[in-house]
Amino acid sequence: MSNRFQALYVAAGCAAALLVSPAVFGQSKAAGNVAKGKDVFEMNCEVCHNADSTEKKMGPGLKGLFKMEKMVNGKKPTEANVRAIINAGGNGMPSYQDLLSDEEKNGVIAYLKTL
């Protein structure tokens, strides 16, 4: 095998690794699609939560959620804490543990970060 062919082979392998596994290179594998997250939010969450204000509907308004010091439950609004609420529900909110896929939850969280 020539040195030139070996270099091309290594470069192609590196490019494939970058495309296939962004988590290995410092990007979150849980990064969600904002547009899809907005769609999921509108279909599942908007009935009870405002996205454009902090005013309460049935549940708290979520505008600026990730900029808040704490959520209604007193916890810091981190991805893990928001995901825990989505999964468990509570205070009248149903559990979305089995109703939404991980991809949909990732999208909703990505969308909430834009509010």
Would you spell out the secondary-structure blueprint of this structure?
Blueprint: H1 3-20, H2 34-44, H3 79-88, H4 102-112
Helix pairs in contact: 2-4
Q: What do you see in this structure?
A:
The protein has helices at residues 3-20, 34-44, 79-88, 102-112. The N and C termini lie far apart (54 Å). 43% of the residues lie in helices and 0% in strands. Helix 2 (34-44) crosses helix 4. It has 115 residues and is mainly alpha-helical.
Primary descriptors:
0% strand; 43% helix; Cytochrome Bc1 Complex, Chain D, domain 2; 2 domains; mainly alpha
- Uncertain segments: 7-29
Q: Enumerate how many helices there are, as a single number.
A: 4
For the largest beta-sheet, the strand count, sense and barrel status come to: none
Number of strands: 0
Secondary-structure element series: HHHH
Mean pLDDT: 83
CATH architecture of the largest domain: Orthogonal Bundle
In the CATH hierarchy, the third-tier topology of the largest domain is known as Cytochrome Bc1 Complex, Chain D, domain 2
Give me the secondary-structure category: mainly alpha
Judging from the principal axes of the Cα atoms, what is the shape? globular
Percent of residues in helices: 40-55%
- CATH first level of the largest domain: which class? Mainly Alpha
